[in-house]
Amino acid sequence: ALSDPRELVRLRGQLLASGRLELDELAPLLVRAGLPIERTTGLLRFEAQLRNQRDELGPEFALLLTTNGLRIVEEPRVAAEADTSAAAIDQQPFALEGIDAHVSTHVRPEQGVAFGTLILLDRGGTLANVQFELQLPQPWRTSLWQPQLLYEAPIKVRLETPSRRLSSLPTLLRPAGLRGRAALVAILDGNLANPLIRAQLSATRLRGA
Questions:
Q1: Are the C-beta atoms of residues 195 and 187 closer than 8 Å to each other?
Q2: CA–CA gap between residue 115 and residue 200 (Å, rounded)
Q3: What pLDDT is attached to residue 138?
Q4: How remote is the C-alpha of 149 from its chain's centroid?
Q5: Each residue of 69-116: pLDDT tens digit?
Q6: Mean per-residue pLDDT for 126-132?
Q7: What is the H or E stretch that residue 128 is in?
Q8: d(CA 122, CA 100)
Q9: CA-CA distance, 3 to 143, in Å (whole number)?
Q10: Three-state secondary structure readout of 70-122
């Protein structure tokens, strides 16, 4: 019998769980949790895998998430008289729509590393590609119970957005009053407690709408 949960790392084999979630059923649960969400739609597919083979890699946890037709709408805000058009816009409920996500994450505690990719997409293709690699503090079993160690752990994140027409971006990301094309590459080094950020923005034919 296993008297200590940490002894699970000695087990060998593979555990896989996968499925799909209709997000229409998620909104009532979020409301019960106290979140101001009126409606959620779309589909979430997931696959979680835990494997520990007889090799030098040790245990590995992998998680894959993919959304399709994601839409999240905030509850309507309390109506108030708006003095300006900007104030009227501020009173509109938040709506996340037209953007889907693909998330892939791997954690290899014995190797002391976690890495993954986040891709945001719309009908026009890729909106953003984010890749990260985190060096897990050792011993990793101790760091799980000390979040501050993870906050100070070395991390590298790269964000890349391909060149896109600003007018083609989803409403949530589209800058008001601007036209043209833009692309961005940003890199974060160091750790979350003391990050070093470098960014390069490229824009062509940028002008007011």
A1: no
A2: 23
A3: 77
A4: 21
A5: 999 888 887 655 555 555 545 567 788 889 999 999 999 888 889 999
A6: 96
A7: strand 125-135
A8: 6
A9: 21
A10: EEEEECCCCCCCCCCHHHHHHCCCCEEECCEEEEEEEEEHHHCEEEEEEEEEE
